[in-house]
Design a protein that fits this description.
The structure is a homodimer. In chain A, the strands form 3 sheets. In chain A, strands 2-3-4-10-5-6-7 form a 7-stranded mixed β-sheet, with helices on both faces. In chain A, strands 1-11 form a two-stranded antiparallel sheet. Chain A folds into 3 domains: 78 residues, Hypothetical Oxidoreductase Yiak, Chain: A, domain 1; 176 residues, Malate/L-lactate/L-sulpholactate dehydrogenase, NADPH binding domain (Ribosomal Protein S8, Chain: A, domain 1), CATH 3.30.1370.60; 41 residues, Hypothetical oxidoreductase yiak, domain 3 (Wheat Germ Agglutinin (Isolectin 2), domain 1). Chain A is globular. Chain A contains 10 helices and 11 strands. In chain A, a hairpin with a 6-residue loop joins strand 6 and strand 7. In chain A, helix 1 crosses helix 2 and helix 1 packs across helix 10. By secondary structure, chain A is α+β, with helices and mostly antiparallel strands. At the A-B interface, strand 4, strand 7, helix 7 and helix 8 of A face strand 4, strand 7, helix 7 and helix 8 of B.
Chain lengths: 332, 332
């Protein structure tokens, strides 16, 4: 059902406060990430993360988020088990700071044991600060390598963000042919998954989500070697480079990891000129001829931006009845 | 036929000297790029570029390669029409220099009007210097955007390179379902192209390479929106960010463009530790179970590395008779 964003935010704050695990000053940052997801049509990355078997607000950190290494262009961060959206939010602010003074800022993030949500949130934040963004995160093993059947790479999303004269251009994709949440949802609904997105423990294509989750693996998004290569690149950036675990190896517990980069376009062209060119590029693409009269030419983020504008104008967002009901139960 | 690499190099040098357009000191750099391609099984990016209707050595630059903007972390380069492999070679050396002092080096390259060849060459060079590489180049319009039928994005290759304890891990892919050269070759051979890689001017799938080259477009590698998104990201990095043309727009003539980044892994982890982890990751992947007994699990660059090792050990490389014959004719 539709709910007013401010009411949803109040409800979420109360649900988080209930556990007492997260400092009041940090709650707003986490909700920024989750509400952005719901407002941009990414409901699987939104307040749903405050529900289910491992709600985000039940996470107990072992220490404060710590900068373990720092240079004028970079920061390595150990989140010490803090909720991933909080740590990635912190990392994003750091790379924007670095970028303002050095023209570039890069963060490697380890010590997280949960999903940081929509990569688009961080890419959008960096692009709205005027910079080019690259965000890549690794997660527990899910994707099989090319020719293989073991779930070695995470679903490994990667996102880019570019400032334009208007809204940033955000490209945010999972490396996998189906998301992990897609499996969970199909299982919960008792429904099959598409017949070409995942394999069982014998390496055979399967439509049974349970067979994938129990010893099987997801295929890369293109079902081929380029997609598997991209998943492996993200595994290296968000894993070994960031100082996090990789391929199910236990480095510091089985942490997740992330790589976040912000780049000042003014290092090359004039920064304003870049925005103009990016906007012109988008215009050329959107005004180009469609393949047939029943399709439209689209660019990354079109759908999300449409959701976002609607949420901003109506002040409302669509949340499933089950999620709302669970949140309301939590705060009773 | 097989030819000794040193004989091929001599032949290529003589072919280049024949036109008198390229300074002797620069010839070795260009041949480094081209011979790397032939030695790694990328024959479409090798000495073939010294043959055909627009041989590289006939390019006449308008000026010296010029650094137009520089900071401790970046360099913008106008190649003033010099051969693209020479300009990209120069840019690669610059980002490695910057990386050694600043931990990161980025180059934006414009004013090139030819292909810089195998992205893997530059990624490999950076990775062998001990750094992580990202190389992305845009070229004249070839790929249609998602839902569209106009050739707006180049075939737009993107490559990553990672140092390991042994040979670097190199991932190098075109954003397109078929390369431009693939179309040229099919046309020359009078053969059809696969039935799901390109469209004609009406937006219909076609197997006729001429129909693609004359008003049609190539599809992104996954035939879908993620691949089109990656092509667009490369268009932005190698185009507006680098200060080059984009989507067939005439910015400074219709130049190509490139983005090259080198990153010191020591900014985060210890650099040696990164190499160890990357090597372990590769080992885990290659030792993992195959989907079936008739396939092997592979990682990006496996095939190229096999070719490269063989070329190094035999001192020979495979070049088509037609190419060799054309080069020999050139130096008569």
């Amino acid at each position: 059902m539709k709910i007013e964003i401010k009411d949803l935010k109040d409800l979420a704050i109360r649900a988080i406060l209930k556990t007492g695990n997260i400092k009041e000053a940090d709650i707003g940052k986490i909700l920024d990430v989750l509400l952005f997801a719901d407002m941009t049509g990414r409901s699987t990355q939104g307040v749903i993360k405050l529900t289910g078997s491992e709600p985000l607000q039940t996470i107990v950190a072992t220490d404060e988020i710590e900068i373990t290494k720092e240079t004028p262009v970079s920061v390595q961060i150990n989140a010490h088990g803090n909720p991933a959206p909080l740590a990635a939010h912190f990392a994003t602010e750091k790379v924007i700071e670095k970028c303002k003074t050095s023209g570039i800022g890069i963060a490697g993030l380890n010590g997280i044991y949960s999903s940081n949500g929509a990569q688009a949130y961080y890419a959008d934040k960096i692009a709205r600060a005027g910079f080019v963004a690259l965000v890549a995160s690794r997660s527990p093993g899910a994707i099989a390598p090319y020719g293989g059947k073991e779930p070695l790479f995470g679903t490994n999303p990667i996102a880019f963000g570019f400032p334009t004269l208007k809204n940033p251009l955000i490209f945010d994709m999972a490396s996998s042919a189906i998301t992990w949440y897609g499996l969970i949802k199909a299982k919960a609904d008792g429904k099959p998954i598409p017949n070409d997105v995942a394999i069982d423990k014998n390496g055979e294509l399967t439509t049974d989500p349970t067979a994938v989750m129990e010893g099987g693996a997801i295929l890369p998004f293109d079902r081929s070697y380029k997609g598997a290569g991209i998943a492996m690149v993200v595994e290296l950036l968000g894993g070994p480079l960031a100082g996090a675990t990789f391929c199910n190896v236990d480095v510091q517990g089985k942490d997740w990891g992330a790589f976040i980069l912000a780049l000042d376009t003014g290092l090359f062209n004039d920064a304003e000129k870049f925005k103009e060119s990016a906007s012109e590029l988008i215009k050329i693409v959107k005004n180009s001829k469609p393949r047939s009269s029943d399709v439209i030419v689209s660019i990354p983020g079109d759908r999300s931006l449409k959701f976002y504008k609607e949420a901003l104008s109506t002040g409302e967002v669509e949340i499933s009845d089950a999620i709302l009901s669970e949140l309301r139960d939590q705060v009773k």
